[in-house]
Amino acid sequence: MKQLFAFCLFLGPAGLIFAEKWISPPVTIKAQGDSDEKGNKTLTRPGYFSFYFGGRAALPVVSDPTAYAAAETFTNTHILRTQEIIYKGTGPSFENTSPGYLSMPAIRIEWDIPFERIGFLPKARSLSVLFSVEGAMSLRSQVLDAAGNFRYQNAQAQHLALTDVTYTGSLSVRERHQYISPMVGVGTELGNARGLRFIGSVSLGVALQNGQRDYELALSPQQISAGAFSDTYSVSATAKESYAMAFLLAGRAELGMRMRLSAKLHLALVASCTVHYGLINYAGTGIFAERAGTTAEKNIYQKVVSTTSDEVYLGLAPGIFLALSHEI
Question: What is the pairing mode between strands 298-327 and 265-292?
């Protein structure tokens, strides 16, 4: 030691640095965060903030009544008025044009938090909690269609020529739906962190859904000459059945593959299936009218339509998504 002390004095400050670096015992600095028994930092699986872009096909498993049956009943009651005395109508056969599914473009944002980052959850490295909000809107689809001759009888008309009039034209019923769905779930990710990884999840939540059916009867005006009642007559009807913020229970299961694009960015291809169940309360409003004049400026008869109805819905919505994720 005397020789080492003399050597350090001889070298001055350079000797002290040399002695501290090579002679002094090593100092261990423990990593912050989780560490093992040796003080080495343990790596945790990253969380993700993700944007999902894709689409779903809404398939009704149980719809009581079906969209077509509901549209047919409303049309017969309020458009054709088959049970009325004033303006009782008959028309061509209805065509059921209701599709087997509704195409619904959809987007979703999702926050993925690993279990090990949440203190009260078990330290399962492959599991995470998922918080998501999904929105989707269906394309407008045809439900019912009819074209040809529409006959309207009015036993209380002011002239015999107006008691039975046949018009030509068309009737159409279309529908569309949209929803926003917050959910909470559990996800897993397995595989090589630098390569392809298998991902899967199950989630539960609700779907707050809006929708409507639009009814339109478009008939060509009919020229009728009957003494003082010689004029151009036409019958028209428009109506809408709609509902807002229907509360549907929702469940979702997904499987897919994720790959790394850069240090923080990931891309995933995901197959998804959602189940929706609940009661939908429709409110219907509309107007049935007969008018006269070349510009339909004379109002002969008008009836305001106001209805309510309930439909029980249970449906599947399979879909496929591309997900762009950023590590957080």
Answer: antiparallel
Nearest by Cα to 282 from 306, 310, 248? 310
φ/ψ of 292, rounded to 5, equals: -125, 165
Backbone angles phi, psi at 110, to 5 degrees: -145, 140
pTM above 0.85, yes or no: no
Q: DSSP assignment of 199-241, as one string?
A: EEEEEEEEEEEEEEEEEEEEE--EEE--GGG-EEEEEEEEEEE
**What SS3 state is found at 11?**
helix
Q: Are 108 and 129 in contact (CB under 8 A)?
A: no
What interhelical angle do 13-22 and 2-11 show, nearest 10? 130
* Of residues 147, 142, 148, 149, the one with CA closest to residue 96: 142
Q: Are 57 and 103 in contact (CB under 8 A)?
A: yes
> Is residue 93 classed as helix, strand or coil in its secondary structure?
coil
Question: Are the CB atoms for 202 and 185 separated by under 8 Å?
Answer: yes
- The answer for residues whose C-beta is within 8 angstroms of residue 267's C-beta and 6 or more apart is 258, 259, 261, 322, 323, 324, 325
Concatenating the DSSP letter of every residue in 29-45 gives -PPSSSB-TTSPBPP-P
* SS3 sequence of 185-200: EEEEEEECCCCCEEEE
What residue type is assigned to position 278 of the chain? G
Q: Which of 79, 86, 202 is nearest to 145 (CA)?
A: 79
Three-state secondary-structure class, residue 121: coil
1-25 residue pLDDT tens: 444 444 444 444 444 343 344 433 4
Give the pLDDT confidence of 95-136 residue by residue, as tens digits. Answer: 999 998 999 999 999 999 999 888 888 888 889 999 999 999
What are the backbone dihedrals phi and psi of residue 195, each rounded to the nearest 5 degrees, phi first? -125, -145
